[in-house]
Amino acid sequence: MQGFKENFRKYKLYYISEGVFLISWLIYFVLFFQLYQEASFYVDQGAKYIIQLLFLVEYYFNSLFIYFIMSFLLLVANLYSILLYSIKMKQEKKKIQFKFSMQVFMGLYILCAGALLLTKLWVLFLLLIILAVTVVYITYAMTKSQKDNDTVYEENEVVKQLGSFSTAEEAQSRAQEFATYWQEEFQENGYTLVSDIYNEKENEYTVDIYVKSIEKDKD
User: Which UniProt keywords apply (predicted)?
Assistant: First the structure.
């Protein structure tokens, strides 16, 4: 329980965002299903599926189009939030909290996306879900590729600042955690991570983590 409270305090922005998405989805479904039930009342249930779909789209296109746009924006924004949270948690190496939180976040997302697929418009919603996943994946891949290519650092360039911390031991521990996680990646690019702890005010410690060239370090 203590670990969860600490996790919530540290990443409350992500939890709050998921709460906002949940409320947004609830409002969306209340409004959407009001329209959907009205439209479905006039559908010939004995007709082929494609005929039912064409009827809904043709006679309720203007109203449905708004909900299609809203669902797409919610799908994309929700996925971005989950992606950013997962990246942040992996960097912090919070395995237990990460696993539980991601199960909750992904469960809510799958539940909402699944609800869209239970309607007669499931084909169109499926296309929107695929498009949303594609947009998020392409954006992530491009960002990651750009980050991977940006591997040239100047000697003693600060790559991360941590703090402030109330004790030197806590500052040292966090610096060690960061170095443990990222050291291998920097070493692959010819750098090693070094940290300095600063005590600028009483009971206030900060950490500068900077890079040194492995070759120069050997010299």
Answer: Membrane, Transmembrane, Transmembrane helix
